[in-house]
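Input sequence (155 aa), recorded before submission:
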Amino acid sequence: MIAYLIGTAAFAADYASKRWAERSLELNGDKRPVFGGRLFLYRIENRGTAGGHLADRGSLPLILSGTALAAAAVHQHRTRKESSTLTRIGSSLIIAGGLGNLCDRVRRGAVTDFAAVRHRDGTIGRYVYNAADAAIAAGAAAIILGECLGEKKKA
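Predicted structure, token format:
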């Protein structure tokens, strides 16, 4: 149950942060430094997959996103009884992030991204992220950690 609550919270945070970005940040506007300039707020519309790849491929990013999300949900359902809590939380985060980005693709035809990282050399990274991307990355890390620790749910 905790995994689903965490996933729901991640989805809600992604939705709220994207709506905030749409209201508060000009599309392709100035980069606003936050956290001492380690992160920049900068809103773009990503019509492709990660990093804008496949942006010129019509509905392909939507189809790929939907397929990956469906596969993750089926996998989570099939393995829920033998998965550790950490692994289930990771799966829920990945599904929540995927669903957040998929909702954007369906609703707007593009994903709202709004956070870029400054590299150690002072340059701002080329990739722009959102809370769904953070949930997906955290979910993948949780699954890897859960599997490495070898925890299994007691049946």
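Checked by second reader. The radius of gyration is 17 Å.
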